[in-house]
Write a structure and sequence with these properties.
With 404 residues, this protein is α/β, with parallel strands linked by helices. The chain folds into two domains: 130 residues, Aspartate Aminotransferase, domain 1; 236 residues, Type I PLP-dependent aspartate aminotransferase-like (Major domain) (Aspartate Aminotransferase, domain 2), CATH 3.40.640.10. Helices cover 43% and strands 18% of the residues. The strands form four sheets. It has a seven-stranded mixed β-sheet, with helices on both faces. It has a four-stranded mixed β-sheet with strand order 1-2-3-14. Helix 14 packs parallel to helix 16. The longest helix has 20 residues. The chain is globular. The model has no long low-confidence stretch (mean pLDDT 96). The structure holds pyridoxal-5'-phosphate (PLP). The site of pyridoxal-5'-phosphate (PLP) has 13 residues, from helix 5.
Amino acid sequence: MHNQPFYNQIQATLADIDAQGLTKHEVSITSEQSAHIQTAVEPQRQSVEMLNLCANNYLGLANEPRLIASAKKALDENGYGMASVRFICGTSSLHHALETRLANFLQQDACILYSSCFDANTGLFETLLGEPDAIISDSLNHASIIDGIRLCKAKRYRYQNNDMQDLETQLAAAKSAHARHIMIATDGVFSMDGTIANLPVICDLAAAYGALVMVDDSHAVGVLGAQGRGSIEHCDVMNRVDIVTGTLGKALGGASGGYVAASASVVELLRQRSRPYLFSNALAPMITAASLTALDIVEAEPQRRQTLQRNAEQFSSALTQAGFDLAGEGHPIIPIMVGDANRAQAFSQALASQGILASAFAYPVVPAGKARIRTQMSSAFDENTLAQAIAGVIAAGKSAGIIA
Ligand SMILES: Cc1ncc(COP(=O)(O)O)c(C=O)c1O
């Protein structure tokens, strides 16, 4: 084959990834997404029940009958797909209803839906900012924020994760470089670490330096705050944040879709110019309808958040007592720090032997040498499931030599 050198190079790259213990293996799930799942295990694909400790199913809505009923109703009434981008003929009344609902929920003027939050973040910065501007980004921001910033011509500044002194240094640098507009961009919750951004200080610094604040609250909407409005509610800065982005693919049912909530003019400019919005198909009506039901449940059932919080506290205190090194604080993302990528893979395999699904995260998803098992708690865990999870993690930690 005349392109053989190309394919050889791809094979060599894959071999290199494998040699470093960085190959990601996908588990085939044959049941609904839930606390207990059925997986098809190779080579015979026999069905194995596992306890799922790594889903973004924070509120247990991924298989919630009311969401499924809303999706089915929308399938019957609005059909399967829109077969268009939004501005040609892809806008259903459900899209407008969800945009209004999300804007109200997040206390912003307006909202615009995307196929994913990844798209929302990649279409945001280049539409709103240009060469004379500056973006100041947290070093642990999600890949989609990083990519979105790369697409934008604004000058880039980076501050160390949640380090407010460094943020101020970067703000001062952008100011003295005479940036026209300055935007601070941060995750509300840092998804690999399970920590919450210091939004009160970020907003204070933004006010002092005349900067805008953008928060990606993908891991916090539905999860944090008394009413589930996210880290911005949890940190009491709802009306001090200019732009909120988020996903429908985690706490709000876990299907797919993302959004930007902001002032009416910002949202209107995104509708006119944002490339992933203009050039990508509209969200399916069934997802839009189910997301409206998810928001009803987030508002009407705060007990889900309370159960989630209680489960997360019990889980992390039991693991700390057992001798694990945990990261995270105040959020149901509870990473178990391991360090070496191969050790993290071995721990993940030991967990699988205990019937627990929890993936290892290593470079490039987290910094080299900081491999971990990221566990995520859910309100769908009842007492028995939680006890089973704790016992299984401890047994796996012992067999993999993570704890004594
Ligand atoms: C902070 C953050 N932003 C954006 C995304 C992407 O969301 P979506 O799956 O909707 O593209 C994720 C999901 O991994 C995330 O954790």
